[in-house]
């Protein structure tokens, strides 16, 4: 444990955590009081934002308490507070509760609901990834990214909050009437946001190459969480219906959980083995799906002219025979890439 843990920082960490719980509790109670159905709560992001807020807050509390000099914990606490602010205010913008609010109050609530959560996604989480695990950037040449992230956070919040919304019972205090004319600016904001996350991932790779055994163990926890997110967002998300697509966001809490374990308990498991197996079976899954689809298409073309067994049967037999040799070779490649020739 750190000897620099002090009562002021401990109380601040617990205070912000309490604020997040109060915000989430207010939002959930308001949703229940308004009689929102499960589908309505899902579509208004009350469920997903609550889970993301609490997970970030728990991770931030543990890090802020145990490692108060590491800014990563405070960034996660801030992310939780921003997400929870949207949870607390969103139910009051519905047709059940919104019409009863005075106009200034309703507009303030709308401002908090629209402008809060973007700071979590575009500012707090990218900075936490850039500063992970020790609270410093990967190098001096990375300093320019900090003002870029701050500026992008403000621009992304404006992109989300300033759009006119006729479906809401109240508009935020800052709405741009010519919002549609600024479409190129919003597109640039999305590109910069993606570039910031890409830079954070590159930073993790740089740290991994330079790091010792302990640092690599820490980084693998976060890389495993990011790999899981990539699989869910790239493979599972396109296959689910519009209603279930919201729940894809529930993979985001893996990131603060992995960060917390990496900083505080990175030796909990042999993460090298876990990560190696995850990469291996991720590659195998992609290879099997691609090979299956390709063989089925090829076999169907051949058999349409000659007749015979179904293409899916042929593809299944070929993949079954070739699975284990491919698995063994891929395991060697993955282990060599991760750990060298040791």
Give the helix tally: 13
Q: Hey, roughly how much beta strand do the residues contain?
A: under 5%
Bin the helical content.
over 70%
Summing up helix and strand content along with how strands pair, one would put the structural category as mainly alpha
What is the CATH level 1 assignment of the largest domain? Mainly Alpha
* Unreliable stretches covering 5 or more consecutive residues: 1-5, 267-271, 317-321
Give the ordered list of helices and strands.
HHHHHHHHHHHHH
N-C termini distance: 32 Å
Sheet bearing the most strands, described?
A: none
Short description:
With 342 residues, the chain is an all-alpha fold. It has helices at residues 7-33, 38-43, 46-66, 71-89, 103-115, 117-131, 145-161, 183-210, 213-236, 242-245, 254-264, 271-306, 311-339.
Question: What can you tell me about this protein's structure?
Answer:
This protein has 13 helices and no strands. With 342 residues, it is mostly helical. The protein has two domains: 262 residues, Rhopdopsin 7-helix transmembrane proteins; 63 residues, no CATH class.
Descriptors:
mainly alpha; 13 helices; Rhopdopsin 7-helix transmembrane proteins; disordered N terminus; 2 domains; 342 residues; globular
Set out the fold topology.
Elements: H1 7-33, H2 38-43, H3 46-66, H4 71-89, H5 103-115, H6 117-131, H7 145-161, H8 183-210, H9 213-236, H10 242-245, H11 254-264, H12 271-306, H13 311-339
Helix pairs in contact: 1-3, 1-4, 3-4, 3-11, 4-5, 4-6, 5-7, 6-7, 6-8, 7-8, 8-9, 9-11, 9-12, 12-13
């Amino acid at each position: 444990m750190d000897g620099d843990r002090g009562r002021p920082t401990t109380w601040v960490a617990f205070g912000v955590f309490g604020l997040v719980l109060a915000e989430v509790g207010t939002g959930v109670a308001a949703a229940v009081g308004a009689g929102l159905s499960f589908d309505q709560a899902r579509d208004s992001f009350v469920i997903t934002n609550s889970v993301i807020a609490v997970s970030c807050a728990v991770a931030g509390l543990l890090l802020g308490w145990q490692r108060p000099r590491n800014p990563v914990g405070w960034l996660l606490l801030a992310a939780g507070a921003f997400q929870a602010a949207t949870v607390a205010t969103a139910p009051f913008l519905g047709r059940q509760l919104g019409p009863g609010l005075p106009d200034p109050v309703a507009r303030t609530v709308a401002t908090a609901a629209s402008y809060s959560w973007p700071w979590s996604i575009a500012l707090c989480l990218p900075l936490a990834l850039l500063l992970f695990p020790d609270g410093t950037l990967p190098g001096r040449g990375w300093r320019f990214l900090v003002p870029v992230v701050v500026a992008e956070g403000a621009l992304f919040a404006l992109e989300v909050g300033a759009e006119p919304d006729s479906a809401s019972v109240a508009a935020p205090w800052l709405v741009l009437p010519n919002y549609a004319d600024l479409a190129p600016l919003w597109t640039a904001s999305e590109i910069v946001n993606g570039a910031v996350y890409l830079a954070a991932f590159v930073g993790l790779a740089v740290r991994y190459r330079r790091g010792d055994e302990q640092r690599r163990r820490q980084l693998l926890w976060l890389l495993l969480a990011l790999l899981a997110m990539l699989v869910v967002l790239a493979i599972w998300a396109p296959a689910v219906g519009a209603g279930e697509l919201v729940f894809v966001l529930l993979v985001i809490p893996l990131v603060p959980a992995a960060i917390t374990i990496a900083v505080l308990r990175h030796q909990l498991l042999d993460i090298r083995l876990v990560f190696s197996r995850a990469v291996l079976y991720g590659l195998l899954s992609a290879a099997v799906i691609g090979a299956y689809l390709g063989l089925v298409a090829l076999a169907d073309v051949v058999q349409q002219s000659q007749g015979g067994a179904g293409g899916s049967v042929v593809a299944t037999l070929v993949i079954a025979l070739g699975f284990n040799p491919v698995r063994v070779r891929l395991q060697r490649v993955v282990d060599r890439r991760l750990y060298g020739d040791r």
